[in-house]
Amino acid sequence: MRTADIRSRFLDFFAARGHTVVPSAPLPTPDPTLLFVNAGMVPFKPYFAGEAPPPWERATSVQKCVRTLDIEEVGRTTRHGSFFQMNGNFSFGDYFKEEAVAYAWELSTSPQAEGGYGLDPARIWVTVHHSDTESRSIWRRVAGLPDERIVDRGDEDNFWSMGVPGPCGPCSELYYDRGPAFGREGGPAVDEDRYMEFWNLVFMQYERGAGPGKSGYPILGELPRRNIDTGMGLERMATLLQGVDNLYEIDETRPVLQRAAELAGVRYGADPEADVRLRVVADHVRTGLMLLADGTAPGNEGRGYVLRRILRRAVRSMRLLGYEDPALAELLPVARDCMAPSYPEVADAYPRIAEQAGAEEDAFRSSLRQGTTVLDTAVARVKESGGRSLPGAQAFLLHDTYGFPIDLTLEMAAEQGVEVDREGFTALMNEQRERARADARARKAGGAVDTTALRTVLDAHGPTDWRAWDTLETES
Ligand code: ATP
Ligand code: MG
Ligand code: MG
Ligand code: MG
Protein backbone atom coordinates (compact mmCIF):
# COMPACT_ATOMS: atom_id res chain seq x y z
CA MET A 1 0.00 0.00 0.00
CA ARG A 2 1.39 3.39 -0.95
CA THR A 3 2.08 5.87 1.84
CA ALA A 4 -0.48 8.27 0.38
CA ASP A 5 -3.12 5.49 0.61
CA ILE A 6 -2.21 4.65 4.20
CA ARG A 7 -2.61 8.33 4.97
CA SER A 8 -6.04 8.73 3.36
CA ARG A 9 -7.28 5.44 4.75
CA PHE A 10 -6.58 6.74 8.24
CA LEU A 11 -8.43 10.01 7.70
CA ASP A 12 -11.37 8.22 6.05
CA PHE A 13 -11.63 5.71 8.89
CA PHE A 14 -11.84 8.39 11.56
CA ALA A 15 -13.98 10.76 9.49
CA ALA A 16 -16.50 7.92 9.16
CA ARG A 17 -16.50 7.75 12.96
CA GLY A 18 -17.42 11.35 13.60
CA HIS A 19 -13.95 12.96 13.54
CA THR A 20 -13.38 16.32 11.83
CA VAL A 21 -10.40 16.20 9.47
CA VAL A 22 -8.00 18.98 10.45
CA PRO A 23 -5.17 19.93 8.05
CA SER A 24 -1.56 19.70 9.21
CA ALA A 25 -0.19 22.81 10.90
CA PRO A 26 3.05 24.22 9.42
CA LEU A 27 6.26 22.79 10.88
CA PRO A 28 7.49 26.02 12.54
CA THR A 29 5.23 26.39 15.55
CA PRO A 30 4.30 29.39 17.67
CA ASP A 31 4.55 27.07 20.71
CA PRO A 32 7.30 28.77 22.74
CA THR A 33 8.65 25.47 24.08
CA LEU A 34 9.40 24.02 20.64
CA LEU A 35 11.16 24.92 17.41
CA PHE A 36 9.05 22.63 15.21
CA VAL A 37 5.87 20.64 15.66
CA ASN A 38 7.09 17.27 16.92
CA ALA A 39 3.79 15.44 17.47
CA GLY A 40 0.24 15.46 16.18
CA MET A 41 -1.16 16.94 19.36
CA VAL A 42 0.97 20.08 19.38
CA PRO A 43 -1.50 22.27 17.43
CA PHE A 44 -4.24 21.10 19.83
CA LYS A 45 -2.35 21.90 23.05
CA PRO A 46 -4.51 24.91 23.95
CA TYR A 47 -7.61 22.67 23.90
CA PHE A 48 -5.99 19.97 25.99
CA ALA A 49 -4.60 22.53 28.43
CA GLY A 50 -8.04 24.10 28.76
CA GLU A 51 -6.92 27.47 27.43
CA ALA A 52 -9.41 27.50 24.58
CA PRO A 53 -12.67 25.61 24.01
CA PRO A 54 -12.14 22.79 21.47
CA PRO A 55 -14.10 23.49 18.25
CA TRP A 56 -14.86 19.77 17.90
CA GLU A 57 -15.32 16.81 20.22
CA ARG A 58 -13.41 14.54 17.82
CA ALA A 59 -10.69 15.39 15.33
CA THR A 60 -8.21 13.59 13.10
CA SER A 61 -5.10 14.80 11.30
CA VAL A 62 -1.90 13.83 9.56
CA GLN A 63 0.62 16.19 11.05
CA LYS A 64 4.05 17.01 9.62
CA CYS A 65 6.65 16.57 12.38
CA VAL A 66 10.34 17.30 12.81
CA ARG A 67 12.12 15.80 15.82
CA THR A 68 15.54 17.30 16.29
CA LEU A 69 16.19 14.81 19.09
CA ASP A 70 16.04 11.98 16.57
CA ILE A 71 18.49 13.46 14.03
CA GLU A 72 21.44 11.46 15.36
CA GLU A 73 19.43 8.24 15.08
CA VAL A 74 18.69 8.74 11.41
CA GLY A 75 20.04 6.01 9.16
CA ARG A 76 21.31 3.99 12.11
CA THR A 77 17.99 2.68 13.45
CA THR A 78 15.34 1.35 11.09
CA ARG A 79 12.64 3.68 12.31
CA HIS A 80 13.64 7.29 13.04
CA GLY A 81 13.16 10.04 10.49
CA SER A 82 14.08 13.64 11.28
CA PHE A 83 10.89 14.48 9.39
CA PHE A 84 7.90 12.19 9.62
CA GLN A 85 4.13 12.28 9.53
CA MET A 86 2.03 11.48 12.54
CA ASN A 87 -1.52 10.30 11.96
CA GLY A 88 -3.70 11.02 14.95
CA ASN A 89 -7.20 10.77 16.31
CA PHE A 90 -8.21 13.04 19.16
CA SER A 91 -11.05 13.15 21.64
CA PHE A 92 -11.67 16.34 23.55
CA GLY A 93 -13.68 15.22 26.55
CA ASP A 94 -15.60 12.76 24.39
CA TYR A 95 -14.64 9.06 24.09
CA PHE A 96 -11.87 7.57 26.20
CA LYS A 97 -9.71 4.42 26.57
CA GLU A 98 -12.12 1.75 25.43
CA GLU A 99 -12.99 3.42 22.11
CA ALA A 100 -9.41 4.56 21.47
CA VAL A 101 -8.18 0.98 21.85
CA ALA A 102 -11.03 -0.43 19.76
CA TYR A 103 -10.43 2.06 16.91
CA ALA A 104 -6.68 1.43 16.81
CA TRP A 105 -7.21 -2.32 16.84
CA GLU A 106 -9.92 -2.27 14.18
CA LEU A 107 -7.99 -0.06 11.75
CA SER A 108 -4.71 -1.95 12.25
CA THR A 109 -6.10 -5.44 11.86
CA SER A 110 -9.20 -5.32 9.70
CA PRO A 111 -8.56 -6.63 6.17
CA GLN A 112 -7.26 -4.25 3.52
CA ALA A 113 -10.28 -5.07 1.35
CA GLU A 114 -12.45 -3.63 4.13
CA GLY A 115 -10.54 -0.37 4.56
CA GLY A 116 -8.08 -1.51 7.24
CA TYR A 117 -4.32 -2.09 7.21
CA GLY A 118 -4.62 -5.87 7.52
CA LEU A 119 -1.80 -6.38 10.05
CA ASP A 120 -1.59 -9.89 11.47
CA PRO A 121 -3.24 -9.66 14.93
CA ALA A 122 -1.05 -12.50 16.20
CA ARG A 123 2.06 -10.34 15.76
CA ILE A 124 0.84 -7.27 17.59
CA TRP A 125 2.15 -6.56 21.09
CA VAL A 126 1.13 -3.66 23.31
CA THR A 127 2.58 -1.89 26.31
CA VAL A 128 0.62 -0.32 29.15
CA HIS A 129 1.62 1.72 32.20
CA HIS A 130 2.08 -0.63 35.14
CA SER A 131 -0.58 1.20 37.15
CA ASP A 132 -3.10 1.12 34.33
CA THR A 133 -4.84 -2.20 34.93
CA GLU A 134 -7.91 -0.78 33.23
CA SER A 135 -6.09 -0.61 29.87
CA ARG A 136 -4.74 -4.12 30.30
CA SER A 137 -8.22 -5.50 30.71
CA ILE A 138 -9.53 -3.46 27.78
CA TRP A 139 -6.81 -4.94 25.54
CA ARG A 140 -7.76 -8.40 26.71
CA ARG A 141 -11.45 -7.86 26.18
CA VAL A 142 -11.53 -5.71 23.03
CA ALA A 143 -8.62 -7.23 21.12
CA GLY A 144 -8.47 -10.65 22.72
CA LEU A 145 -4.75 -10.15 23.41
CA PRO A 146 -3.16 -12.72 25.72
CA ASP A 147 -1.49 -11.35 28.86
CA GLU A 148 2.01 -12.24 27.56
CA ARG A 149 1.64 -9.73 24.76
CA ILE A 150 0.52 -6.91 27.07
CA VAL A 151 3.76 -5.61 28.58
CA ASP A 152 3.93 -3.39 31.69
CA ARG A 153 6.20 -0.39 31.53
CA GLY A 154 7.03 2.48 33.84
CA ASP A 155 6.88 6.28 33.77
CA GLU A 156 9.83 6.72 31.43
CA ASP A 157 8.14 4.96 28.50
CA ASN A 158 4.44 4.89 29.25
CA PHE A 159 3.47 8.01 31.10
CA TRP A 160 2.83 11.19 29.19
CA SER A 161 2.83 14.78 30.34
CA MET A 162 3.65 18.11 28.75
CA GLY A 163 6.39 18.72 31.30
CA VAL A 164 4.42 21.57 32.86
CA PRO A 165 1.41 21.71 35.16
CA GLY A 166 -1.59 20.45 33.19
CA PRO A 167 -3.04 17.23 31.81
CA CYS A 168 -1.08 13.98 31.96
CA GLY A 169 -1.77 10.28 31.95
CA PRO A 170 -0.72 6.76 31.03
CA CYS A 171 -0.05 5.66 27.44
CA SER A 172 -0.39 2.42 25.61
CA GLU A 173 1.77 1.63 22.59
CA LEU A 174 1.23 -0.84 19.75
CA TYR A 175 4.19 -2.81 18.38
CA TYR A 176 4.49 -5.16 15.44
CA ASP A 177 6.74 -8.21 15.54
CA ARG A 178 8.70 -8.14 12.29
CA GLY A 179 10.11 -11.58 12.88
CA PRO A 180 13.41 -13.24 13.77
CA ALA A 181 15.27 -11.67 10.83
CA PHE A 182 14.96 -8.33 12.62
CA GLY A 183 16.28 -9.24 16.05
CA ARG A 184 15.79 -11.02 19.31
CA GLU A 185 12.59 -12.57 20.55
CA GLY A 186 10.93 -11.40 23.76
CA GLY A 187 8.78 -8.38 23.03
CA PRO A 188 9.29 -4.63 22.82
CA ALA A 189 11.20 -4.46 26.09
CA VAL A 190 13.90 -6.63 24.50
CA ASP A 191 14.24 -5.32 20.94
CA GLU A 192 12.61 -2.22 19.49
CA ASP A 193 13.86 -2.84 15.97
CA ARG A 194 12.29 -6.27 15.70
CA TYR A 195 9.20 -5.13 17.60
CA MET A 196 8.52 -1.84 15.88
CA GLU A 197 6.38 0.71 17.69
CA PHE A 198 3.81 2.05 15.26
CA TRP A 199 1.09 3.68 17.35
CA ASN A 200 0.95 5.42 20.70
CA LEU A 201 -2.32 6.02 22.56
CA VAL A 202 -2.23 8.69 25.25
CA PHE A 203 -4.96 8.70 27.86
CA MET A 204 -5.12 12.17 29.41
CA GLN A 205 -6.71 11.34 32.67
CA TYR A 206 -5.03 13.30 35.46
CA GLU A 207 -3.94 16.81 36.22
CA ARG A 208 -0.41 17.30 37.43
CA GLY A 209 1.18 20.12 39.39
CA ALA A 210 4.65 21.64 39.03
CA GLY A 211 7.73 19.48 39.57
CA PRO A 212 10.88 18.18 37.96
CA GLY A 213 10.97 15.89 34.94
CA LYS A 214 8.48 13.19 34.11
CA SER A 215 7.92 11.87 37.60
CA GLY A 216 8.33 13.46 40.99
CA TYR A 217 5.51 15.95 40.49
CA PRO A 218 2.24 15.84 42.36
CA ILE A 219 -0.82 14.43 40.61
CA LEU A 220 -3.60 16.78 41.65
CA GLY A 221 -6.46 14.49 40.65
CA GLU A 222 -8.64 13.29 37.80
CA LEU A 223 -9.33 15.71 34.96
CA PRO A 224 -12.94 16.79 34.78
CA ARG A 225 -12.94 16.09 31.03
CA ARG A 226 -10.66 13.30 29.86
CA ASN A 227 -8.98 13.42 26.46
CA ILE A 228 -7.48 11.06 23.92
CA ASP A 229 -4.38 11.86 21.88
CA THR A 230 -2.96 9.22 19.58
CA GLY A 231 -0.07 9.14 17.15
CA MET A 232 0.50 6.55 14.45
CA GLY A 233 3.77 6.85 12.56
CA LEU A 234 2.81 7.00 8.88
CA GLU A 235 6.27 6.00 7.65
CA ARG A 236 6.40 3.14 10.16
CA MET A 237 3.09 1.75 8.96
CA ALA A 238 4.37 2.12 5.39
CA THR A 239 7.55 0.23 6.34
CA LEU A 240 5.42 -2.61 7.67
CA LEU A 241 2.91 -2.68 4.83
CA GLN A 242 5.48 -2.31 2.06
CA GLY A 243 7.59 -5.08 3.57
CA VAL A 244 10.79 -3.04 3.45
CA ASP A 245 13.63 -3.09 5.95
CA ASN A 246 13.45 0.49 7.23
CA LEU A 247 11.59 3.74 6.79
CA TYR A 248 14.11 5.20 4.35
CA GLU A 249 13.12 2.53 1.86
CA ILE A 250 9.42 3.32 1.56
CA ASP A 251 7.92 4.82 -1.58
CA GLU A 252 8.27 8.42 -0.30
CA THR A 253 12.01 8.23 0.43
CA ARG A 254 13.53 5.37 -1.54
CA PRO A 255 13.70 7.30 -4.85
CA VAL A 256 15.93 9.93 -3.21
CA LEU A 257 18.15 7.22 -1.78
CA GLN A 258 18.32 5.60 -5.20
CA ARG A 259 19.25 8.84 -6.95
CA ALA A 260 21.95 9.53 -4.36
CA ALA A 261 23.43 6.07 -4.95
CA GLU A 262 23.40 6.64 -8.72
CA LEU A 263 25.12 10.02 -8.42
CA ALA A 264 27.78 8.64 -6.11
CA GLY A 265 28.18 5.48 -8.14
CA VAL A 266 27.63 3.17 -5.18
CA ARG A 267 25.26 0.26 -4.75
CA TYR A 268 22.86 0.39 -1.79
CA GLY A 269 23.35 -2.75 0.31
CA ALA A 270 27.01 -3.24 -0.56
CA ASP A 271 28.63 -1.46 2.41
CA PRO A 272 27.00 -0.74 5.80
CA GLU A 273 28.70 2.65 6.34
CA ALA A 274 27.78 3.86 2.86
CA ASP A 275 24.22 2.61 3.45
CA VAL A 276 23.92 4.77 6.56
CA ARG A 277 25.08 7.77 4.54
CA LEU A 278 22.58 7.06 1.79
CA ARG A 279 19.78 6.84 4.34
CA VAL A 280 20.92 10.09 5.95
CA VAL A 281 20.82 11.76 2.52
CA ALA A 282 17.35 10.38 1.76
CA ASP A 283 16.03 11.55 5.12
CA HIS A 284 17.73 14.94 5.28
CA VAL A 285 16.89 16.00 1.73
CA ARG A 286 13.23 15.37 2.44
CA THR A 287 13.37 17.18 5.80
CA GLY A 288 15.13 20.11 4.17
CA LEU A 289 12.48 20.24 1.47
CA MET A 290 9.60 20.21 3.95
CA LEU A 291 11.18 22.84 6.22
CA LEU A 292 11.97 25.15 3.31
CA ALA A 293 8.43 24.66 1.99
CA ASP A 294 7.03 25.78 5.33
CA GLY A 295 9.08 28.97 5.31
CA THR A 296 12.11 28.20 7.49
CA ALA A 297 15.29 29.68 6.02
CA PRO A 298 18.82 28.46 6.73
CA GLY A 299 20.52 30.55 9.41
CA ASN A 300 22.79 30.56 12.41
CA GLU A 301 20.37 30.04 15.25
CA GLY A 302 17.19 28.33 16.27
CA ARG A 303 15.09 26.87 13.46
CA GLY A 304 17.38 28.18 10.75
CA TYR A 305 20.36 26.46 12.31
CA VAL A 306 18.59 23.12 12.47
CA LEU A 307 17.78 23.44 8.78
CA ARG A 308 21.35 24.51 7.96
CA ARG A 309 22.76 21.49 9.79
CA ILE A 310 20.37 19.17 8.00
CA LEU A 311 21.18 20.50 4.53
CA ARG A 312 24.91 20.54 5.19
CA ARG A 313 24.84 17.04 6.59
CA ALA A 314 23.14 15.86 3.40
CA VAL A 315 25.79 17.56 1.25
CA ARG A 316 28.55 16.29 3.47
CA SER A 317 27.21 12.73 3.33
CA MET A 318 27.23 12.90 -0.47
CA ARG A 319 30.85 14.05 -0.31
CA LEU A 320 31.73 11.13 1.93
CA LEU A 321 30.07 8.86 -0.62
CA GLY A 322 32.43 10.27 -3.19
CA TYR A 323 30.18 12.80 -4.92
CA GLU A 324 31.66 16.29 -4.81
CA ASP A 325 29.50 18.25 -7.27
CA PRO A 326 26.49 20.28 -6.10
CA ALA A 327 24.04 17.62 -4.95
CA LEU A 328 20.87 19.33 -3.76
CA ALA A 329 19.75 20.43 -7.21
CA GLU A 330 19.84 16.75 -8.23
CA LEU A 331 18.13 15.36 -5.14
CA LEU A 332 15.49 17.90 -4.13
CA PRO A 333 13.36 17.45 -7.27
CA VAL A 334 13.16 13.73 -6.53
CA ALA A 335 11.98 14.43 -2.97
CA ARG A 336 9.52 17.02 -4.32
CA ASP A 337 7.97 14.49 -6.68
CA CYS A 338 7.58 12.03 -3.79
CA MET A 339 5.90 14.54 -1.48
CA ALA A 340 3.87 16.78 -3.80
CA PRO A 341 0.92 14.36 -4.17
CA SER A 342 0.18 14.77 -0.44
CA TYR A 343 1.62 18.29 -0.07
CA PRO A 344 0.95 20.39 -3.19
CA GLU A 345 2.56 23.41 -1.44
CA VAL A 346 5.92 21.71 -1.98
CA ALA A 347 5.50 21.91 -5.75
CA ASP A 348 4.11 25.47 -5.63
CA ALA A 349 7.04 26.75 -3.59
CA TYR A 350 9.64 24.70 -5.44
CA PRO A 351 11.42 27.50 -7.36
CA ARG A 352 12.03 29.38 -4.09
CA ILE A 353 13.05 26.16 -2.30
CA ALA A 354 15.58 25.31 -5.01
CA GLU A 355 17.05 28.81 -4.86
CA GLN A 356 17.44 28.83 -1.07
CA ALA A 357 18.87 25.33 -0.99
CA GLY A 358 21.27 26.14 -3.82
CA ALA A 359 22.52 29.26 -2.02
CA GLU A 360 23.03 27.26 1.15
CA GLU A 361 24.98 24.57 -0.64
CA ASP A 362 27.15 27.20 -2.36
CA ALA A 363 27.86 28.85 1.00
CA PHE A 364 28.80 25.49 2.49
CA ARG A 365 31.09 24.68 -0.41
CA SER A 366 32.84 28.00 -0.03
CA SER A 367 33.19 27.49 3.77
CA LEU A 368 34.65 24.11 2.97
CA ARG A 369 37.22 25.74 0.71
CA GLN A 370 38.15 28.40 3.27
CA GLY A 371 38.09 25.90 6.11
CA THR A 372 40.38 23.66 4.14
CA THR A 373 42.94 26.46 3.87
CA VAL A 374 42.67 27.09 7.62
CA LEU A 375 43.05 23.39 8.32
CA ASP A 376 46.04 23.00 5.99
CA THR A 377 47.82 25.95 7.61
CA ALA A 378 47.16 24.58 11.10
CA VAL A 379 48.33 21.11 10.13
CA ALA A 380 51.53 22.54 8.63
CA ARG A 381 52.18 24.40 11.89
CA VAL A 382 51.67 21.24 13.95
CA LYS A 383 54.12 19.35 11.76
CA GLU A 384 56.72 22.14 11.81
CA SER A 385 56.74 22.13 15.59
CA GLY A 386 57.19 18.35 15.56
CA GLY A 387 53.70 17.73 17.03
CA ARG A 388 51.29 14.99 15.98
CA SER A 389 47.99 16.43 17.11
CA LEU A 390 45.83 19.32 15.96
CA PRO A 391 44.72 21.42 19.01
CA GLY A 392 41.08 21.07 20.06
CA ALA A 393 40.64 24.83 19.69
CA GLN A 394 41.45 24.56 15.96
CA ALA A 395 38.89 21.81 15.47
CA PHE A 396 36.37 23.92 17.36
CA LEU A 397 37.11 26.98 15.22
CA LEU A 398 36.60 24.89 12.10
CA HIS A 399 33.32 23.64 13.48
CA ASP A 400 32.05 26.93 14.78
CA THR A 401 33.20 29.34 12.06
CA TYR A 402 33.48 27.14 8.98
CA GLY A 403 30.73 24.65 9.73
CA PHE A 404 33.12 21.67 9.70
CA PRO A 405 31.61 18.65 11.42
CA ILE A 406 34.24 16.94 13.56
CA ASP A 407 34.35 13.84 11.39
CA LEU A 408 35.33 16.02 8.43
CA THR A 409 38.20 17.58 10.41
CA LEU A 410 39.32 14.14 11.61
CA GLU A 411 39.26 12.74 8.13
CA MET A 412 41.09 15.63 6.50
CA ALA A 413 43.70 15.77 9.27
CA ALA A 414 44.23 12.02 9.05
CA GLU A 415 44.83 12.33 5.30
CA GLN A 416 47.84 14.47 6.23
CA GLY A 417 49.02 12.15 8.98
CA VAL A 418 47.86 14.27 11.93
CA GLU A 419 45.52 13.40 14.82
CA VAL A 420 43.04 15.74 16.46
CA ASP A 421 42.84 16.54 20.16
CA ARG A 422 39.30 15.24 20.53
CA GLU A 423 39.15 15.80 24.27
CA GLY A 424 39.94 19.47 23.89
CA PHE A 425 37.38 19.73 21.10
CA THR A 426 34.70 17.94 23.13
CA ALA A 427 35.31 20.19 26.15
CA LEU A 428 34.78 23.29 24.01
CA MET A 429 31.67 21.75 22.41
CA ASN A 430 30.25 20.93 25.84
CA GLU A 431 30.77 24.51 26.97
CA GLN A 432 28.90 25.69 23.92
CA ARG A 433 26.11 23.18 24.45
CA GLU A 434 25.77 24.27 28.06
CA ARG A 435 25.30 27.84 26.88
CA ALA A 436 22.64 26.71 24.39
CA ARG A 437 20.86 24.74 27.08
CA ALA A 438 20.80 27.72 29.39
CA ASP A 439 19.21 29.69 26.53
CA ALA A 440 16.62 26.98 25.98
CA ARG A 441 15.81 26.89 29.68
CA ALA A 442 15.33 30.64 29.67
CA ARG A 443 13.01 30.29 26.67
CA LYS A 444 11.03 27.53 28.32
CA ALA A 445 10.71 29.36 31.62
CA GLY A 446 9.38 32.36 29.76
CA GLY A 447 6.88 30.32 27.78
CA ALA A 448 5.34 27.64 30.00
CA VAL A 449 1.84 26.66 28.92
CA ASP A 450 -0.78 28.75 30.67
CA THR A 451 -3.23 26.51 32.48
CA THR A 452 -5.28 29.16 34.24
CA ALA A 453 -8.42 28.08 32.41
CA LEU A 454 -7.89 24.45 33.41
CA ARG A 455 -7.55 25.55 37.00
CA THR A 456 -10.79 27.52 36.78
CA VAL A 457 -12.60 24.36 35.65
CA LEU A 458 -11.03 22.34 38.43
CA ASP A 459 -12.00 24.96 40.99
CA ALA A 460 -15.58 24.88 39.73
CA HIS A 461 -15.69 21.10 40.10
CA GLY A 462 -14.26 21.16 43.59
CA PRO A 463 -11.29 19.29 44.95
CA THR A 464 -10.66 15.81 43.58
CA ASP A 465 -9.28 12.87 45.50
CA TRP A 466 -5.75 11.61 45.25
CA ARG A 467 -6.14 8.11 43.89
CA ALA A 468 -3.77 8.72 41.04
CA TRP A 469 -0.80 9.45 43.22
CA ASP A 470 -1.14 6.13 45.01
CA THR A 471 -1.62 4.02 41.91
CA LEU A 472 1.05 5.74 39.91
CA GLU A 473 3.81 6.00 42.44
CA THR A 474 3.53 2.95 44.68
CA GLU A 475 3.13 0.10 42.23
CA SER A 476 6.29 -0.87 40.44
P1 ATP B 1 10.39 5.48 19.56
O1 ATP B 1 10.29 4.90 20.94
O2 ATP B 1 10.42 4.43 18.50
O3 ATP B 1 11.49 6.49 19.44
P2 ATP B 1 8.41 7.33 20.39
O4 ATP B 1 7.83 6.57 21.54
O5 ATP B 1 9.45 8.35 20.68
O6 ATP B 1 9.02 6.30 19.30
P3 ATP B 1 5.94 8.75 20.11
O7 ATP B 1 6.39 9.99 20.75
O8 ATP B 1 5.11 7.82 20.89
O9 ATP B 1 7.23 7.97 19.53
O10 ATP B 1 5.23 9.14 18.73
C1 ATP B 1 4.06 8.48 18.24
C2 ATP B 1 4.38 7.66 17.01
O11 ATP B 1 5.06 8.43 16.02
C3 ATP B 1 5.28 6.48 17.29
O12 ATP B 1 4.53 5.37 17.75
C4 ATP B 1 5.91 6.23 15.93
O13 ATP B 1 5.04 5.44 15.14
C5 ATP B 1 5.98 7.61 15.32
N1 ATP B 1 7.35 8.20 15.44
C6 ATP B 1 7.92 8.75 16.53
N2 ATP B 1 9.14 9.22 16.29
C7 ATP B 1 9.36 8.98 14.97
C8 ATP B 1 10.44 9.25 14.09
N3 ATP B 1 11.54 9.89 14.49
N4 ATP B 1 10.32 8.87 12.78
C9 ATP B 1 9.20 8.24 12.35
N5 ATP B 1 8.15 7.97 13.13
C10 ATP B 1 8.21 8.32 14.42
MG1 MG C 1 11.47 8.39 20.30
MG1 MG D 1 8.61 4.65 22.26
MG1 MG E 1 5.75 6.15 21.92
Describe what you observe in this structure.
The protein has 476 residues and is of the alpha/beta class. The chain has 3 domains: 241 residues, BirA Bifunctional Protein, domain 2; 114 residues, no CATH class; 58 residues, no CATH class. The protein contains 17 helices and 11 strands. The strands form 2 sheets. Strands 1, 2, 3, 4, 5, 6, 7, 8 and 9 form a 9-stranded mixed sheet that branches. A hairpin with a 4-residue loop joins strand 6 and strand 7. Helix 8 crosses helix 10 and helix 12 runs antiparallel to helix 13. The radius of gyration is 24 Å and the shape is globular. 43% of the residues are buried. The C terminus is likely disordered.
